[in-house]
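To whoever is covering the structure queue this week,

Two jobs came back overnight. Logging them here so there's a record in the thread.

Job A:
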Amino acid sequence: MYKDKKIAVIGVNENPEKYGYKIFKDLLADGYDVRAVGVRGGNVAGQNIYKSLAELPVKPDTVITVVPPAGTDKTVDDCINLGIKEIWMQPGSRSSEAIKKAKAAGIKVTERRCFMIECGLW
């Protein structure tokens, strides 16, 4: 279902111990069309980490948040501004305010479920 979508993972950095790194790297290894976004930038597995959704060369179909709730609030604002219609809030990144705002803007929200488990990758 998600293999044919463009995905952005928010919260990626160069630390292999962090979930943003692990999720991005595993999606990439499994052949997903995925881009990394992290405020510090950098590089993972030969791929650029963009500093914002707006910097991505292509608009993603789905955004996965792996950031604290305040980061998810900002990500929802970015999704609204860019016309992105689906957001997946990984456990620990959900925000009631972000969910409310996203749904009001017509964005499909998935929360309280792990993308990697739901897609059979972990």
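Job B:
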Amino acid sequence: MPTKPSERELDEFLTRGMSEVIVREDLRKLLASGERRLRIKQGFDPTHPNLHIGHSVGLRKLRTLARWGHEIVLIVGDWTTQIGDPTDKDETRPTRSHEDVMANARTYIDQFHRVVPKDGSRIVLQTEWFGKFGLRDVIELSSRFTVQQMLAREEFRKRQAAGTPIPIKDLLYPLLQAYDSVAIEADVEAGGTDQLFNLLAGRELQQMVGQRSQNIYVHHLLEGLDGQKMSKSKPATAIWFTDGPNEMFGKIMSINDGLMPHYFEWATEMPIEEVREIVSGLASGSMHPREAKETLARRIVTEFHSAAAADEAAAAFGKQFREGERPAEIPDVRVAKDSAKSVNVVDLLVRAALVKSRGEARRLVEQRGVKIDDAVADLTTELPVDGRPVVQYGKRKYARITWG
């Protein structure tokens, strides 16, 4: 039987990093009673080989639920990834091959267990049920929902208003994710705020087929180095599970000061009382942002690596900061080749997603804030499309360009 969490533990679980819980009182009673083992579901689309620390916000919740004795089911979306999640997209995503999806999924499986323990959890591929689907099954599933329901989704409304095509496959995405809940008979489904539409579709489909409707909780989405949602589609602005200690430490030290409250509360296991003390100190000015950020970087590196690795990373960062040394670990950023033999530095910054816009790229170059292999770039700088140049953009951000 599951253990019964304390009122304090439940309060923190249902509020820390949480955006919405449906139905809050029902879920609270189920967790508080400990009367039965709940099946908790969360899905991940392997669109990139690695997970980033934004994923750890939700995975940590699953770890807590596993510790309380509930069953965790991590669903690898090997079918939904081929369609492409339309969430937050004003255009359709390209279809992916099953081979590419599965190559990414293999790395996901190892990385899941860096946070969620193997005991009490299982990883399931959608192939277990969609691999047996025929045309009749697709028609039956599609008949459960209306076009009007799908077009109520904000992303589709935007496309309609702009006259952008909406492929039928995009309308199928939330139906397939919803069916996952039916296939495993989920009691609870978890996801980020961008997944609420899909999670509600699962709840509705369960009711249609006679299952008990799953409860839902959605957690906040951690921001990346650009201040926007951390995303697998923007690799240069993400902090990855696979980042080495020095690289992870340096990235955290480069985040905007205003993001620290979110990082402390959502991206660490630091006791909430300590988090509140630090956030209060930042707000009052009694704690310097650099001191707080180093505490944050040490904490996250310790959780993903070790305390010793965090100490070494802090020392390396301090030396680099004081002496202007290039960091030992520089993230690789792949940039697609085209027919051109060279690329302008402004175009490179944009194509590598190191900046948010051409305007920002131009300003950074004009302010002498960009170096290519330690040489200051200007607006006329052209780079040959070969080799592996190191780009420094800003004071402490680096990327090693690979072409492909």
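Note for Job B: Residues 63 and 116 are 5 Å apart (CA to CA).

Please reply-all if you pick these up so we don't duplicate work.
Q.
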